């Protein structure tokens, strides 16, 4: 996934009211949209280097969007709105081993009137629902984690994926790790014990769990490598 325009480098001052971030760019303070509803734990230290995009659409209240943060020497992609685009390109370009040479890829497909999954992939006459989770949390050098806050929505998705298995579908959670240098992934059970419980139940019921790391630079973000899932 290539950024359409060159990103602008700055330093983080603060994030507030969830969707706003003040950033210092060459001694000018600008306010950018923060497209991430998570806690962004470990990423928000003052003076962290960041990269933002600019959109000159006159209808937008905020021209700038926070895209990448450098934390503990790792670039982290924080724009959750890009996650599905990155995965779609990964599926289309056979970068995800388990879904290579799929027959069709449909984004944002309703499973029922209350739930829409990120992808419906057809491979070898078998339909697979895929739900993508964007990962930005790391508390040790090479272990990425999800979630970074309690997620009742995440638990709901796990239960619905189990229901889909009962109806003959294959189902998968794909943890998209937008953090450089990670080698492993685990569920942050200390942050959301209920999600961890539902994760174990879903795994036992046949939901597939995958974690893939991205290659990140200020020009593009692409799926790079499958990670080991630990602490199961």
Task: Please name the defining characteristics of this protein.
six-stranded mixed β-sheet; alpha/beta; about 230 residues; 3 helices; single chain; 16 strands; five-stranded mixed β-barrel; OB fold (Dihydrolipoamide Acetyltransferase, E2P)
Give a description of the structure:
There is one protein chain. The chain is α/β, with parallel strands linked by helices and 232 residues long. It has two domains: 8-73, Beta Barrel (OB fold (Dihydrolipoamide Acetyltransferase, E2P)), CATH 2.40.50.580; 80-229, Trna Endonuclease, Chain: A, domain 1 (3-Layer(aba) Sandwich). 16% of the residues lie in helices and 45% in strands. It contains three helices and 16 strands. The chain has helices at residues 83-92, 152-166, 193-205, and strands at 8-16, 20-25, 28-33, 49-54, 64-71, 74-77, 104-112, 115-123, 126-135, 137-140, 143-146, 170-177, 184-187, 208-216, 221-226, 228-229. It has a six-stranded mixed β-sheet with strand order 7-8-9-12-14-15. Strand 1 and strand 2 form a beta hairpin. Helix 2 (152-166) packs parallel to helix 3 (193-205). It is globular and about 55 Å long. The chain starts with 7 loop residues before the first strand and ends with a strand. The model has no long low-confidence stretch (mean pLDDT 97).
């Amino acid at each position: 996934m290539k950024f359409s325009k060159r990103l602008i480098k700055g330093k983080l001052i603060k994030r507030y009211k969830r969707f706003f971030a003040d950033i210092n760019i060459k001694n000018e303070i600008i306010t950018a949209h923060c497209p991430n509803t998570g806690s962004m734990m470990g990423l928000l230290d003052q003076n962290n280097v960041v990269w933002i995009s600019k959109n000159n659409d006159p209808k937008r209240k905020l021209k700038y969007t926070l895209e990448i943060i450098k934390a503990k020497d790792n670039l982290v992609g924080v724009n959750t709105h890009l996650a599905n685009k990155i995965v779609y390109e990964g599926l289309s370009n056979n970068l995800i081993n388990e879904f290579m040479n799929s027959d069709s890829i449909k984004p944002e497909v309703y499973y029922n009137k209350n739930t829409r999954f990120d992808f419906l992939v057809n491979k070898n006459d078998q339909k697979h629902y895929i739900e993508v989770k964007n990962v930005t949390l790391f508390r040790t050098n090479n272990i990425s984690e999800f979630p970074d806050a309690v997620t009742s929505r995440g638990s709901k998705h796990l239960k619905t994926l189990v229901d889909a298995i009962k109806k003959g579908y294959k189902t998968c959670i794909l943890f998209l790790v937008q953090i450089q240098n990670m080698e492993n992934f685990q569920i942050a059970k200390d942050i959301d014990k209920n999600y961890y419980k539902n994760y174990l139940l879903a795994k036992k019921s046949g939901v597939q769990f995958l974690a893939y790391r991205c290659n990140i630079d200020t020009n593009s973000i692409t799926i790079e490598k499958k990670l080991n899932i630990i602490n199961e």
